[in-house]
Predict the 3D structure of the following.
Amino acid sequence: MASSTSSSSNMPPTATHERLPMGLRLTAADRPGVAQPVPERDIPHQPWGRISLVVVILVLLLSSLWEWQMRRLELVPGDMSSSYDTWAKLRREVDRRDVPLLLIGDSRILYDTDLDRVQQLTGIRPIQLGIAGGTGLLVLEDIADDPHFKGLAVVGMAETSFFDNRFTVVRTREAIELSKKESPSKRASYQIQRVIGPGLAMLEEDYGLSTLVAHLDPHWRPGVRGPYDNVWKIGQLAPDGSARLWQRLEHDKRLNDHARTVWFELFPPFPIDDKSIQEILVRSKTAVDKIRARGGDVVFLRPPSGLDLGKVEYGHIPRARGWDPLLAYTHTKGVHADDLANAQNLNLPESSHLSHACAIVFTDAYIRSVTQLTPMLHLKPDAPPPLSTPDCVPPSAASLDQAPGKVNR
Amino acid sequence: MIFNSLVFVVFFAIVLILHSMPFSWRVKKINLLIASYIFYAAWNPPFVILLWLSTVVDWFAARGLAAAENPWKRRAWMMVSIVVSLGLLCYFKYGHFLLDNFAHMVSMAGFKYSPPKSSIILPIGISFYTFATMSYTLDIYLRRSAPARNFLDYALFVTFFPHLVAGPIMRPTELVPQFEVPHQATASQMRFGLALMTLGLFEKSVLADGFLGPVVDLVYNGRSAPGFIDAWMGTLAFSGQIFCDFAGYSITAIGAALCLGFALSDNFRFPYAAIGFTDFWRRWHITLSAWLRDYVYIPMGGNKRGNARTYFSLMATMLIGGLWHGASWTFVVWGGLHGLYLSVERMLRKPFRGYHPGPIAGAALGLLTFLFVNIAWVFFRAKTFPQAIVILRGMFGRNHHAEPILAAIYLITTTLIIGGLLLAHSLMRNKTLEMAIARLHPATLTALWTIMAFAVVIQHGESNGFIYFQF
């Protein structure tokens, strides 16, 4: 059909009268005001069969070498800690079934809790909703608004993330949003990753190409807080939500030192005023009351910090200003790591999270304590005997590590 | 569903297998249509209804148009198509924007009005498929083409998954004829298609998301005003990010279609080697600029009704182009700046008629074009005018006492990538990608393909959506 508007003199802004240089093909830009024809797509003359075969072999070979190197760096196949997909899946479980025990909070309750130990003690496998770099408050509020939940929520907190959540709300919001609006495509990708993940350690996002390149720069430009100062890989996460401190961090001094430095830079002395604390207390109480009104209950948990980090945390929000008012204002019981006789002087390789062995000891101690605080959780009659610090820290190491004495809280 | 996701790998493998099975051509097309709907629904299933609505309304409007002889009837059918298509677009994309601006105007007149809060979600790719379906009825209205012979071919033209959500914006005359006759990729087409997909994913996942995106975010989302170096590096990084993101999508889409035996249009032609803004728009997002030219600029009179009308049409077209990208005045300013650039260039063309720059002058003019394009990108990327002003002040060295923002490694990687991009565009300025590939030694081509594929594998990470999805 002829064009009624294809006048060659009616030139549009993107058309010119120049002839195309040799080698270029016409595009829609060169054909104003006419019906565009079927595009041309030349296939460059190359031995594509041989080339593609060699490419496939080389990529498989290089990827295998990369995978080998990643395993040498102690990355673990099946680790799902790079995304919030696992968290979102677990959060949706709360909507689908009766959940008797829920763990909420930041990276401390996440990495310092051993779900297997909880199950051995109580017969219940809790749902773990701790978020690395997150805050328990937002999740507590989210759960409080969810009429499905009528169980016991153990809310882990560190003063830095709970009361001063300028930085921790972002990740928490992202995770909550994903749990509510995750597209079918993303869910399907997650399921595929669960299938291929157990065979691949190289899927770890913290060891992606651009991240590794970015970490090469140890402050070359003065005055800049660069990617070297970001939090590097800290934990491992299984698809069922069980998590632990990354095994390499338990012995790699360089990574420990890096993490410790980052914690101090990330949580500088922060001027948190009483008004802000009061706001957090009010929000906490509102959430707790909503859960209790449905027959559920809440217990707060303060996992341990290393001596050096604890000094910073308690230096600015001591127990008398944060933890004690939180329990009093919300009329809630709580378990503080300092009060657990069987879990003192534990091993925190990078000052913020427990080694896996000590996480089992700490879990044992705090779960036993929680069972005494609420009728909603009971120890099994055949629960294993209590653990204590020597089960994860040799006595000599414990005395050396903690020689400077307790932090003034 | 996005190309850089695991689910797409599985989806595409299934589509390729189904397409290579010995089914009839009609069954293969039905498979492709269903696959395309799944591709779209994988993001948000209810919005498939919008896609159907847009498809069905324009199908019947086009039939009515073709059958009607009376000009008023033809106009009426055309209006049905435009009102439904643009109505959906306006409601979902510009609803908030229009209400907010209305409230602002009313408040300036002394009345207090707060628009009701709504939670309208922008359907992915709505601007792309709306323009595609509109081109179908517009071409028939303008008597450039006849309606498709059957609904399946037409529905597949609208929905065909490689171009559905972020283009290239295909015209019915480019795609419908391909669906009328059986198409199956040859072995070479399939392999070359996979090579193109690798290139596209490398641009997107490695360069745009991995290396350039974080630099842009630090400068544009940061809390402090950037100094000269940081403001320029952030903006240059964005010029690379937006190119690698969008051209990466286009090239992946072209590769995916080629693997199935279909040809999609070129959408980019090494735009950062453009000399002048007319040249830039012949190279950047070609299918959009050509669409706006054919259906907005020319119908407004083009350059046939005197200088004043030409400049008006030019500016109006570019403002609409800006608004097409997003419901924000910053996009309008971006479009307006390009309209201004094109107008000034047009004014300068008369006194410099017959001037052909030599290699050095050409390079200098190319860099000048790139510089002005970058200044316009500031409004494209900034979320607000104050933010854009802060960045521009930095680029002009007016943010005194600015603290450094970007680590040295970001300055190095951005310089290398943008420098490499400019060099590649300059060398390829008068070539097609296919021509350049044909000239490569097979060993070099193998090495390049391997490096890009391996980089994609080891970059992995959270799959980010393409920037142009939001448009």
